[in-house]
Amino acid sequence: MELRHLQYVVAAAERGSFRRAAMALDIRESAVSRRIRDLEDELGAALFIRHHGGVRLTHAGQRFFYGALRALNEIERAAADAGSFGRGETGTVRIGIFTSLAWGFLSDLLRTYVSANPGVRPDLIEGGPAAHIAAVQRLHLDIAFLTGKLVVDGCDVAHLWNERVLVVMPSKHEFVSLRKIDWTHLRDRHFIVSEDDPGPEIHDYLVKHLGDLGHHPSIERHRVGRDNLMHLVAMGQGLTLVHEAAGAAQFPGVVYRPVDGEVLPFCAIWSPHNDNPALRRLLSLARTMSKKVV
């Protein structure tokens, strides 16, 4: 039994004629009649009663017709689903993030992508660079957006955008009157960071830049998330750093000032072995949007 046999039976039953079925299928009437006869011989049951005006279904034919119609509809739906998935129009894309979605390139990218691909569900996972890189390598994540100019074994990387580095300080701090801060302003200041991501990366960033001035920075770790860290800054417990997108989130009692000349590069990382079509659509959009900002 072949798929076309089902199509011939359905067409003949709906039109009440082998001739009209053949015309609808753009084949010869003899081909329809012969293939249906072969099918009846294979099944051991007559599907149609032939008469001068055309054909009509037998009781066995009615049962076969409804089953064939359901099968053809299921096949059509399966083909449409596979085509949509293959074109990246449906499915899920798993995205590792290390930055705020309050504002900036990544926020704009995801909003644009979701709007253009309503059949794709973005699955966002927060985490640190090491965990995200390992997940991408194992194909547990489709893509991750991370800071720095990365070189990762077995992965492709693309630099997409940059963000300024901001100092977070109490609203009554002496540096509030300054429009820009440089590292010499910060060399003797006390900093606080979270023990969780991105705290370790901020710690290393401070050590590197203040160490270049020949100064070992004072940095205190706290077991709090970003929101509570901002409240500690407001209480005068120390300064901290954030990237520009995170600075879009407003907290009472703190202000942001850019560090003069300091920018963070942000990259996308993905596996070349990942065949998720939804990922390819996201990458294409990201590259297009990146050309406007980098």
Question: How would you characterize the overall build of this protein?
Answer:
- The structure is a single chain.
- The chain is of the alpha/beta class.
- It folds into three domains: about 5-85, Arc Repressor Mutant, subunit A, CATH 1.10.10; about 90-160 and about 270-290, D-Maltodextrin-Binding Protein, domain 2 (3-Layer(aba) Sandwich); about 160-265, D-Maltodextrin-Binding Protein, domain 2, CATH 3.40.190.10.
- It contains ten helices and ten strands.
- The protein has helices spanning about 5-15, 20-25, 30-45, 60-85, 105-115, 130-135, 185, 200-210, 225-235, 275-290; strands at about 50, 55, 90-95, 120-125, 145, 155-170, 190-195, 220, 240-245, 255-270.
- The strands form three sheets. A six-stranded mixed beta sheet has the order 4-3-5-10-6-9, sandwiched between helices.
- β3 (about 90-95), α5 and β4 (about 120-125) form a beta-alpha-beta unit.
- It is rod-shaped and about 100 Å long.
- The mean pLDDT is about 90.
Q: Helical region count?
A: 10
The largest β sheet comes out as: 6 strands, mixed
What is the fourth-level CATH superfamily of the largest domain? Periplasmic binding protein-like II
- Helix vs. strand class: alpha/beta
The share of residues in helices is 40-55%
Strand order in the sheet with the most strands? 4-3-5-10-6-9
In CATH, the architecture of the largest domain is 3-Layer(aba) Sandwich
- For the terminal residues, how far apart are their CA atoms? 59 Å
Strand content: 15-25%
Q: Which class of the largest domain in CATH terms? A: Alpha Beta
The total number of structural domains is: 3
CATH topology of the largest domain: D-Maltodextrin-Binding Protein, domain 2
* Computed CA radius of gyration, to the nearest angstrom: 32 Å
- How does the overall form come out from the CA principal axes? rod-shaped
| Low-pLDDT segments | none
Keywords: DNA-binding, Transcription, Transcription regulation
Organism: Sphingomonas ursincola
GO molecular function: DNA binding; DNA-binding transcription factor activity
Protein name: LysR family transcriptional regulator
